[in-house]
Amino acid sequence: MHATREPYDVLVVGGGVIGLVTAWRAAQRGLSVAVADPAPGQGAARVAAGMLAAVTELHHGEEALLRLNLASAARYPAFAAELEEATGRHIALRTCGTLAVALDADDRAQLRELHALQQRCGLDAEWLSGRECRRLEPMLAPGVRGGLRVDGDHQTDPRRLATALLAACRRAGVALLPARAERLLVRGDRAVGAELGGAAGRVSAGQTVLAAGSASGLLEGLPDAVRPPVRPVKGQVLRLRVPPAYAPFLSRTVRAVVRGGPLYLVPRVDGELVVGATSEEAGWDTTVTAGGVYELLRDAHELLPGITELPLVETAAGLRPGSPDNAPLLGPTALPGLHLATGHHRNGVLLTPVTGDILAEALTTGELPAPARPFSPQRFTSSSVLQEQPA
Ligand code: GLY
């Protein structure tokens, strides 16, 4: 027989940055909260570069997502300060801006189109000649044809973010349950907690938040009508080190489209240089491949020829939680007692502060705040009747 733990107000399934920020914010509002994850703080954010790129990652048709991204980016300075105050840990928020550059005529045309979209959306982005780009970042290749200077797109260190959120949860009294949630418990027409793996047993909760990233759709016991349509989108990422003799190799994040694929280089104050990322529909595979590393280095070398001098210290692959419209699924589902906080795709780190605030509001009031309404999971809910399932 498995033990049944005492009921919590909220059980969060998944201890990545999205699950942890949800738990922290909910605990701050006086709710009793548990997080179920065998390795909290070790999700996709361990691989992510941490760009806060609301403006440079803008895409046609994603204006509602842009507003959410901007709202979250605006919260970052206060969020970072609050986390530091609560835990004594900083998340290396670097307000360095971003330069998006073009290497050939096709890239340049694509960047011009992005600039026009940014202008239509009222965003700050300045077109620079190739020479002006190289004046800002002298390590850029002489072939750079032009670029966009976006001083409002910053960066943070996602590993520090995960560590700080974990510490904040501990200090706020969140119970960290080191086990995987195997099955959602549904009684009558309500979610009432989850069955955890191993000897952990059943955890009862008034409300359950499914925040398991790309694995959110895999939880057993989820009625099909509320199963989130998320899928893994693999990203391979490299970490290099800039020795003092080469510093500052870059002074801001540099992005480019090379041969149609996005490339970015994110320089940290501590000398780490993150190069990303592939985007692969490869199921649950997290193998780092020779081809992935080759392509990233080949493209990075074309952009910054000096990069081959730097030590390569780490390669990694993670899984973004992709959703059908590239936007997150936030808040109550059609199954009472079940909320979602998943599907953040390319914007998980950026959307961390606003997700915590939105979920805390939904958990305490039952309502989604107005800016979050376009991201209700119910936009994907099928009309099938929710089946009653035994708890
Ligand atoms: N936002 C960067 C990425 O997902 O690769």
TrEMBL record:
UniProt key word Oxidoreductase: yes
Matches recorded under Pfam families: DAO
BP GO terms, sorted: thiamine biosynthetic process; thiamine diphosphate biosynthetic process
Pathway recorded for this protein: Cofactor biosynthesis; thiamine diphosphate biosynthesis
Top EC group: oxidoreductase
Domain FAD dependent oxidoreductase: 9-361
Catalytic reaction annotation: glycine + O2 + H2O = glyoxylate + H2O2 + NH4(+)
GO cellular component: cytoplasm
Top-rank taxon: Bacteria
EC identifiers of the protein: 1.4.3.19
Protein name listed in UniProt: glycine oxidase
Organism of origin: Streptomyces palmae
Gene: thiO
